[in-house]
Write a structure and sequence with these properties.
The chain is built from two helices and no strands. By secondary structure, it is mainly α.
Amino acid sequence: MKNKLLLSFLVFIFSITFISAYCGDGLLDIPNGEMCDDGGFIWYDGCTPRCQIDEEFMIPNGYCGDGWINGIEECDDGGFINLDGCSNICKHESKKEIKREVKIFKKLTKFIMKFYRK
């Protein structure tokens, strides 16, 4: 049981460190120059496809992730992590969305474990 838990943790760390380390993965990567990362490739949504803040979409007197609800933000928990109730683009996350994402992660872990056991 400990080995499975450890492997799941290592798979998670590997996936967020190596697999998802690119602009558009939904994870803010400040050391690589990302100012935002909404996981999309759409212009004029607040975050450009190059992971820079869209100046035309700036929230007056603030920005998403500053910890203050400004302008069109639904929430702002000061973080850039999804699945905590407030997304990295300052929109409320429903329990249904959170459950769906957790289900996807579990399936990925199960798929990787299948090959690990061989």
